[in-house]
Each structure stands twice: as C-alpha cells, then as structure tokens.
Amino acid sequence: MMTAVRGMRDFLPEDAWRLHRLEQAAREVFSRYGFHEIRTPLLEWSELFTRAVGETTDIVEKEMYTFPDRKGKSLSLRPEGTASVVRAFINHGQGQRLPWRVWYRGPMFRYERPQEGRSRQFHQIGCEEFGAAGPLADAQVIAMAMHFLAGIGLGNRLDLEINTLGCPDCRAPYRERLADKLRAHAAALCDNCQQRLARNPLRVLDCKIPGCRVVAERAPHAREHLCAACAEHFSGLEAYLGALDLAWRYNPLMVRGLDYYTRTVFEITTQELGAQNAVAAGGRYDGLVAAMGGRPTPAVGFAMGMERLMALVGTMAGGIAPPDFFLAAVGVEAQAPGLILAERLRAAGRVVEMSQEGGSMKNVMKQAGRSGAPVALILGPDEVAARQVMVKEMASGAQRSVAWDEMLT
Ligand code: ATP
Ligand code: MG
Q: Which of 229, 230, 270, 387 sits 20 to 30 Å CA-CA off 16?
C-alpha cells in the first residue's frame, strides 16, 4: 500500500476545516493592522535561502529539501516564508508605499526528525512589515500576534519572551566577548557547540543540552553590550509593551536560529506541548533587504506553527455541518427531476446531498439518516407525476407534500 511521505500528513476535511478557521481568524485580525495577504511560490532557487536564512543555520545546513531541476539548477522547497517575501518585496519595486505590510500562510518543508509537533511538511502563518525602523512597529507586530492568539482562545496559555541581539555594530564586539567567555569553558560544551564557538557562538546560548545550559547561564548578555541606538530601541519597545499592558519576559538566552535577526527577537511558547514548545517566533531583520540586493529597508515579522496551534486549540465548535436537505429520489423517473431540484436548491444557497441511484425507498431513507440532514425531500414516481416533493422532518417523522415551485421560494 502506498503511504504519504514520512513526516507529511493528510489533512482530512475536519482538520482542513480547523486549519482554515484559524487562517480566517488570522486574516481578520491582521487586516485590522493593515496587513494583506501575499502568496509566493513554494519553490525557490536554493540560493535564496542559503543567502537569506544563512549558511550556518540548522535550516540551511541540514533541513532543506534541495534538488536540481531538469537543467541542473538547484531548487529548494521553501523552509520558511521570510526569504520569499523579501525577494518579492525587492522584485516588485520594494512595495508601492512604505510601510509595506503583508502576511502569508501555507506549507513549509524541513527535513527534520518527525515527532509530535514536528513534521517535514507543516503550515505557517506569518507576517512581515517593511519600512518602519522604530520600536513601535515591533510592539504592534507583537501585539497583533498576541491579539490573534487571544482571539482563538489561547490568551492566558502562552508565554511571550523577548530579547535583543543588537545590530552588526554592537554585535561584533559582543560576539567576540561571548566567544572568549565560552571558550574558557569549551570542555563543558557539547560537540555541536564546540563547533559553533568559531562559527556562530550566539547559538550556544540556546542549546538545550544541560552542560551547555550551565555555561550559557553565566555568559554575558547581548543587552549589556548594546550601542546607544540599540539600547534606545529596546527601552522604547519595553515602554510600548508596558503601555499595551502585555505580559512578557526578558530571555537573554533566546537568540533564534536564523542569522538575519537584528535588535528585537521574540518567541511565544506554551507549556502544554512538551518539547515542541514554540508556537510563534519572530523579530527584526533590518539588514536583510540590503543583504539580498535591495535598497536598505528595516523590517520586522513573525511566523507561527499552525499544527501546534491546532493541537492547543483542540476541538472547535462547528466543523463540517450536515446538509440542510437530503434529496431521496426513488426510481428511475425521479433521478433527473431530483438532480434538477437539488441544483436549484443549491443555487438558492442550500446544502443538498442526493441519494445514490437504484436504491429502494427503505434504502434511500437509510442514506438520509446517515447524512445527518434534518430534512429529507422524498421524490418517488407519484411525487414526480404531481410535481411535488414529500418533505419529511427526520426527528419527528412528520411529513407533508409541497409543490416544487413552493420548495424554491
Ligand atoms: P523549533 O525550535 O521548534 O525547531 P524553529 O525555531 O525552527 O522552531 P521557526 O523557524 O521560528 O521555528 O518557525 C516558526 C514556528 O513554526 C515555530 O515556532 C513552530 O511553531 C513552527 N515550526 C517550525 N518547524 C516546525 C516543524 N518541523 N513542524 C511543525 N511546526 C514547526
Ligand atoms: Mg527548527
């Protein structure tokens, strides 16, 4: 038997409906903040991600689905959304008007070890705002994420953590200082982190291995080494979050896996999903547009994992509803009139399921019962002759004849 590719799952109609509901909720909230949907291709040149996400990130080093096209050019399935949005921003004249605010949704692909809350095809909703340099944009984007999450019932079940990573000016000396401190304890670090020491020492700070954590706890924080402009940005953000009365926690060890972040980074986590505790993550990436060949433009955004949100939200009221009517057509002559009646009712906005051909009265009524429709419309030879239909309330069994024309008004 053929199965789905490992780490990729089917969304059966109930799941697809729940995903769609969450996307709808996001659309409504995000549009109130001036964000509009953008759709970019699922496939991009591999180089887009190696350049935008960064060569030394987990995503680029080991998680991308990369393959040559028929001409031998390297393509990758998108592992995240920001790189494509930045490319689109630059390709299309850098937005018509700044700030340019867009949101996206859709599948992302990462070759990771599949487990609860972690799959190889997963869905994200994310947003990006280009052209606003100050902390007000950070605060608004964070507020928008929290507003959406509260709206889907997760308001007090999530933790918001924020850190600042500074800008290239203050990060370079900080990085040196950090690397020096870490090197003094290199023996206590895991193999992976020993390698990170030279290439990307900040990543040591968020290593989950206990030995590394002990070292990280005593390492210097980026916040203590900010330049004046970055310090002002962070205190501005603190003031705005305070004004909004948003609860958050400063987490000096959060560095985020992507190379492109500057200044603000944040994560929204849950304590309800075990190891896979991050539901959303984002931050500011002021250098990325220029690094990708565009005019220097500050930007900030986030992405959320929809499967993790779905797991937290659980069952949702509503779901796929039964049809309004079950059209039970009995006998050959009733099939075509039944088809027409069903079509007309659908054109009038009703949900109609029609019986299978060839069933006896008993059989089609069994189908009607299984459909869950509150009302069956029974069409037998007598009804067809009289241009009528027998309307049967399934719960009470009460029934009455109604003319076709009347049915449609
Ligand atoms: P993690 O630390 O869990 O690997 P990440 O830092 O790689 O997360 P991001 O790239 O920031 O994740 O993506 C944003 C969100 O997308 C995550 O917070 C998470 O909810 C979700 N996500 C990321 N990778 C996966 C995956 N493989 N399966 C399901 N959801 C994922
Ligand atoms: Mg990851």
A: 270
Q: Is 308 in the pocket of ligand 1 (CB under 6 A)?
A: yes
- List, edge to edge, every strand of the sheet that includes 278-284: 36-37, 100-109, 121-130, 299-305, 278-284, 262-269, 159-164, 249-250
Whether the CB-CB separation of 34 and 145 falls below 8 Å is answered with: no
Which atom of ligand 1 approaches the CA of 304 most closely? 15
Ligand approaching nearest to the C-alpha of 124: 1
Ligand nearest to the CA of 118: 1
Which one of 313, 346, 381 terminates a domain? 313
Q: Tokens 């799959």 sit at which residue?
A: 119
Q: Are residues 119 and 232 in the same domain?
A: yes
Binding site membership of 119 for ligand 1 (Cβ less than 6 Å): yes
Residue nearest to atom 22 of ligand 1 (CA): 305
Based on the structure, what is the number of domains in the chain? 2
Ligand 1 near 177 CB (within 6 A): no
DSSP three-state, residue 383: helix
Nearest residue by C-alpha to atom 28 in ligand 1: 118
Task: Among 57, 85, 163, 304, say which to mutate for ligand 1: greatest number of ligand atoms within 8 Å of CB.
Answer: 304
Q: Within this chain, do residues 249 and 158 fall inside the same structural domain, yes or no?
A: yes
pLDDT tens, N- to C-terminus, the chain (409 residues) = 999 999 999 999 999 999 999 999 999 999 999 999 999 999 999 999 999 998 888 899 999 999 999 999 999 999 999 999 999 999 998 867 899 999 999 999 999 999 999 999 999 999 999 999 999 999 999 999 999 999 999 988 999 999 999 999 999 999 999 999 999 998 899 998 988 888 889 989 988 899 999 999 999 999 999 999 999 999 999 999 999 999 999 999 998 867 678 999 999 999 988 888 999 999 999 999 999 999 999 999 999 999 999 999 988 888 889 999 999 999 999 999 999 999 999 999 999 999 999 999 999 999 999 999 999 999 999 999 999 999 999 999 999 999 998 887 6
Per-residue CA distances from 236 to 139, 250, 255 (Å): 9, 14, 20
Give the structural domain span for 89.
13-167+227-313
Q: Ligand 1 pocket, 303 CB below 6 A?
A: yes
Does residue 147 share a domain with residue 241? yes
**Separation between Cα atoms, residue 316 and residue 18, nearest integer Å:** 7
Residue 369 is assigned to a structural domain of this protein: yes
For residue 26, give both structure tokens: 């996001």
Q: Whose CA is nearest to atom 7 of ligand 1?
A: 257
User: CB of 80 closer than 6 A to ligand 1?
Assistant: yes
CB of 278 sitting under 6 A from ligand 1: yes
